[in-house]
Amino acid sequence: MTRFAPSRVYLVSAVSGFLSAGFSAWVAVRWWPAWIAFGLLTLGASLAAWLFSRPRFEINESHLVAGKDAIAWVDIRRVDQTAWVSPLVVYLTLVQGVRVRVFYPGHTRQCRLLLRLIQQRCSRALINGVPHSRIFGEPPRPEPTVVAPPRPRFLSDQDESDVERMFQILKSAGRFGGDEK
C-alpha cells in the first residue's frame, strides 16, 4: 500500500498568508489601501488551506482509496489526464459511466508517481484513449501445451510392422513415396 498526502508546502503557505493578512489588517487601521492586500492575502491563504485539507490517496492491490471512498481497479474503464501535473487532475470513468475527478495537491514527483500507479493498475481501462495493453504490454501468458490425442489402433503390432516392411520395399523399388516424376 502506498499513501499520498497533500504537500506540506500548502500548510506553510496558509499559515504565512494568514499571518501576513493579519499584519495588513493592522496596517489598514491607519492606511486604508492595505485592506486590498488584506483581502488578497486572506484569499490566497484560504486557497492554500483548502488545498492542504484535500483527502489522502492510497494505492492498494485491489483498489484506490480517495479519502473515505474506495474505487476498485476493475471498475475503472478510462483514465484521462489533464495538462495539470502539480496539482494533479485526472478523470476516471467507471463502469457505470460515472466520471470521477481525482485532485491531488502534491509535489510534482509525487503527482507523477500517483498518475503512473493509477495508469498501471487500471489494466482494463483506456489510458487517454489508448488500450492499456498497447502502453504497458500484455502480461506474459504461459503457452498452452497441446497434447496430441492418442492414435487409434487399427492394426496389431505385428500387422503394423508388416505394413512398414512392405512400404520400405515399395519405396526402394521406386514405385511409392513420391520419387516418381
The largest sheet is: 5 strands, mixed
Helix content: 40-55%
Shape: rod-shaped
Alpha-beta content class: alpha+beta
Description:
Helices cover 41% and strands 20% of the residues. The chain is of the alpha+beta class and 181 residues long. It folds into two domains: 51 residues, no CATH class; 80 residues, PH-domain like. The strands form two sheets. It has a five-stranded mixed sheet. A hairpin with a 4-residue loop joins strand 6 and strand 7. Helix 1 runs antiparallel to helix 2. The longest helix has 20 residues. The protein is rod-shaped. The relative contact order is 0.10. The mean pLDDT is 85.
Outline the secondary-structure elements.
Layout: E1 2-4, H1 9-28, H2 34-52, E2 57-59, E3 63-66, E4 69-72, E5 76-81, E6 88-94, E7 99-104, H3 108-121, E8 126-127, E9 130-131, H4 132-136, H5 157-172
Parallel strand pairs: 5-8
Antiparallel strand pairs: 1-2, 2-3, 3-4, 5-6, 6-7, 8-9
What labels would you give this structure?
181 residues, alpha+beta, PH-domain like, rod-shaped, five-stranded mixed β-sheet
